[in-house]
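note to self: dont lose this again. the chain is below, predicted strucutre after it. 611 aa total, dont forget to put it in the shared folder this time
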Amino acid sequence: MCGIVGAISTRNVVPMLLAGLSRLEYRGYDSSGIAVIDLQGNTPVMNRVRVAGRVADLAQKSSQTDGRVGIAHTRWATHGAPTEANAHPHLGGDNVMVVHNGIIENFAELKHELIQSGYAFSSDTDTEVIAHLISYELKRDTDFLAAVRRSIAQLKGAFAIGVLNIANPRQVICARQGSPLVIGLGFQESFFASDIAALLPLTQKMIYLEEGDLALLDGVEVQIWDQQGLRAERVARMLDVCSDSADLGPYRHYMQKEIFEQPVALANTLSAVLSQGFDPALFGEQAQQILSDATAIRIIACGSSYHAGLVARYWIEAYTGMPVSVDIASEYRYSQGLEQRGTLIIAISQSGETADLLAAIRNAKERGEVKILALCNVAHSTLTREADLTLLTQAGIEIGVASTKAFTTQLAALYVLAGTLAQARQTLSKEQLTELANWLPRLPAMISAVLTQEAEMENWAHALTHHDHALYLGRNTLFPIALEGALKLKEIAYIHAEGYAAGELKHGPLALVDENMPVIVCAANDVLFEKLMSNLREVEARGGQIYLIAEPGCEAALPYVKSALILPVNTGPLASIVFTIPLQLLAYHTAHRKGTDVDKPRNLAKSVTVE
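---
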């Protein structure tokens, strides 16, 4: 969603702020802005530059701007259209500037009160309320910190904010409640941002703010207060994250680059497993007890992570005999009912800051005595800090909005979890566990082999660009992959696509099949292949154009298809991971051929940190 960057230094912060915003462009936005305090004259001057456009436009418009303290923002419109007037930072009175991520639920009430107090509003945003509110509180008490604290105490909703005050030109304040913020520490300078990606070229020494924290930065030290207003010590961590993740190298788009990074990302994610096997200790000190004592399993996730959870249900039920339910986080949090005592909640999130997911796990804790296992790509995120057990995927920074390597590393981690549950609960023999584990070292090479077939997916994309609709079919663990493939095509190529369990054809979607309907089918060489063959005949008899992705051994289907991609390897229990790759390539090349903004698709954002 929206992106925040702030900085205070002895040098001009404008280039740092603009570079930080550039590294947050992947989050999705429609306008941008920057505000700094210039200390070069006798009197501090606060300057603001905003554009209803890209960061490149902002950089050009602010090329003569200078300041030693500043805040910057990329906005994804919620309250009000994407215009310059609605772009952040917002001015409060004549002395305060604010940037804000999140949504203020009681902004209308506060706005009415502020108008009654003589404040005039120039935007349609909820954020301007925060700026005027702080300005109003400063009239009551010129203490900058106290005014901000009183103001945020009146806000209802989720927010991360950065605040400048012309009367305190060598200070900047930030605070979070429900939206993430991280502080970066440098030499005689400090920074904050909504995502570590914005700060990595400046520093790798980070402090993750806790829920309700408020921080004051003056360039010399960082002071933090907790939700109760007490001084708090937060651990500064050195992150082992590569700062050149935003370099495209030889690739046209970040999505293409990240598709080809998957062999390495999977190898990194599986490295601990390959040395330790299905060891509960991978998930935390209490894992053996929690995994063996679990009475039920519920997986909660959103988007692609939800599809990964659907695959995991097949694995966990097959390897442990435990029933598994999978819920969309935004639905779970508003559903009714108690959780069975001893339920293990598996929460899946790339960022660890997904608003609906965090609300859902907190809701789950209120429903019963549950344990939370976090599967996440970001260490020290809110999700990992609130969980009882954690397994980190090692996908690295993913910039493309449409998830690729984050999704496949989630699948790999969930396969590990399924095997580990079987180990902890002794539901499989030693020989069966060894057989499951032996597939994992082969996975990076399997993915690399499929990536060599990119040209064939590019050829399919030529045909797909001429269609407005598509069906994706699969069975067993490939049914959720059909859902994921359809999602990718929708996200970046703007083609309406639906994923179905192949056995559902006669229950509705077969009515859509004619010579203008491409049907992308994933076929594993398993016990369900003959059933899938019947589905292919149904489509072929109605003129549907079948594009088949299949394992070796599925050649009997070739007479019924328009085009086929036979994978170079058999994929065994890891079919869902391997079949994902050609579907990602197909969506990517279709979108590229149509000329869409592959990495930043319209109306979407990378990290959904508001409801």
